[in-house]
Amino acid sequence: MGRLNGGTNAGKEHFSHDHILKLIANPTETLTCNACEQPNNTNKPFYGCNTCQYFLHENCFNAPRFLNHSSHPSHPLTLHHPPYAGGYYICNACGSDGNGFCYNCAACDFDIHLQCASCPSSILVDKHTHQLELHFGSPDEDKDSKYVCDICFVTMSNDNWLYYCAGCDFASHLYCAITSPEVGVFPKQQHPNPNPNPNPNPSQNSNSNSNLNPNAAVEMINSVNDDHDRLIAAQIRAQIAARGRRAALDLI
Q1: pLDDT tens-digit series, residues 108-130
Q2: Cβ burial, residue 34 (10 Å; 0-12/13-18/19+)
Q3: CATH for 119-177, among 3.30.60, 1.20.58, 3.40.1360, 3.40.50?
Q4: Terminal CA-to-CA distance of the chain, rounded, Å?
């Protein structure tokens, strides 16, 4: 298949696979990494087993087996790979499921994607003038307070990580803030913008989703093209339906 580099490529062992993985210095086709579940967007090296169609980015191949992470200071995290007992895991950082590698604390049932483990502690986004700081949960003293992502306008879970500017009350999902295609962080996500001049974060309370304009939401729902945006659209539909139910109850 022209993927592996010649007979001098002795390859390397990796704990996640039974066969030797050989270096693919210049991939000639799209390969998906079994660790981070992302394709090769550049010509950066891969390690692979053609027989099993098993591939790892070089960075993922070299990810440390044990990790001390500030999000979980009580215990070190161990790099795990599938199969998992439930078929997949739920990432404690971003809230989405995963089928690839994760950093895990078995004692606390704590799991995070490789991408989430490498999120920078602060970041600049083109939607905001100040640096956003990484928080491992709600930055508000009232942990029941909810935040709305000022990039995609979807209410965020209190349990998940977010980027936040306290001075401007500007909040963002991890995957909305991180737009670099480099291995180890989230790939760029394209979100339709239903409001060309959004206000700062609408509210820190549980009613913050009431600021969502239903007409703008419908326009966004009709314009979605990819899986991520379809997920956002489904969340917005649920918000609109919930508001409708509340309004009906108020009339009783």
Answers
A1: 999 999 889 988 899 888 889 99
A2: buried
A3: 3.30.60
A4: 68
